[in-house]
Amino acid sequence: MNETLELLLAIGLPTLAAVGVGAAFVARRRGGPTPPTPGRPGDGGRAATAVLDPAAPALAAPTAAAAVEVAPEAEAPAAAPALEVPEPVVGRLARLRGRLAGSGSPLGARLLAVLSRDHLTEDDWDELEETLLLADVGAGPSAELIADLRTAVRVAGVREPAAVRALLREKLIALVDPALDRSLATAPVIGADGLRRPAVLLVVGVNGTGKTTTVGKLARVLVAQGSTVVLGAADTFRAAAAEQLATWGARVGVPTVRSDRDGADPAAVAFDAVRTGRDTGADVVLVDTAGRLQNKAGLMDELGKIIRVITREAPLSEVLLVLDATTGQNGLNQARVFAEVAGVTGIVLTKLDGTAKGGIVIAVQRELGVPVKLIGLGEGPDDLAPFDAAAFVDGLLGD
Ligand SMILES: Nc1nc2c(ncn2[C@@H]2O[C@H](COP(=O)(O)OP(=O)(O)OP(=O)(O)O)[C@@H](O)[C@H]2O)c(=O)[nH]1
To answer: Which parts of the sequence belong to the SRP54-type proteins GTP-binding domain (predicted)?
Structure first.
């Protein structure tokens, strides 16, 4: 079976035709290889379904078998809205850490209030453990922390408030695990054929956790770091998701590949986004998904197909699971299913600004063995921060 036929079977020919991948793509492949063209968007890349205009506030929907329209940057209309300049990325968590308290006092401050009592009774230790459990630290890590603190306070006699605080900081940082590799794989890769491919980041998670918002914020992080980005709106389930994503992209001049049909095949859109990123020489392609969690088999089908189709064009650099930090144990259950189905490489914990349950960072890493790489600390466009263990714990301690 030749490569094209195999690919069409994988995606599903009828759906492809419906979103406009079919004819144009097949014709191009049959007509001979299309050399990838490293460079910037606007260099003449071609994709079957995308209409790319980085300056457009909302990108026009693709039409069946439409040729791509790429608006050259030099010919952008004079009235195009000014692009926003995202905030620098370095030090974001330190700047935003005041938001970690949620509506109450930070977890660390509550622990310190008990630890600084004159004589710690059994009830005090129980209270400490309960505080950790209520902050979603998880039973195992909570018990470990209490045991360590008891030893230090009772046996080694650590009593002076500054020393107790330093001890708590050290133990919490160890639980969050500063040794984990939290870097995002966003560098383009060179395939076995010697050709350059964009880094492809697939963003998964149940509805409402903040996937689309996170993709939009992450695009800004990457733009701030000087990367060229293409967005893929493979959340074809929710009608407004593609529009929402295109708006995020347009604010920073990032094109969005989307279908003009609600309910289009997400795998076809994901494929087109990666193909567009490849053809235009983009550094990174971010693919948003719907990831409805009706059942594991359905999810496996949908995400499995998206992953198969993407990896025919470029290797998958990251699968980021977006979890809503306010959902506690339920979020952990979801995380388990996604980790099994999609091979998650990093966690994005959103809405940490809306909760005093920052301990979920510890629990989710323990549960999945996957690092938290980014955290969402608000609804603002630059309220997404690379995770850093020490800055996070300092936020929990209310420093
Ligand atoms: N407070 C707060 N709100 C957030 C954060 N991240 C996302 N949100 C909000 O969460 C809501 C849902 O976000 P979406 O990005 O639409 O969620 P989604 O996962 O794409 O949802 P579906 O498309 O339905 O699957 C929006 O109101 C966001 O503004 C965050 O870090 N903090």
So the answer is: 371-384
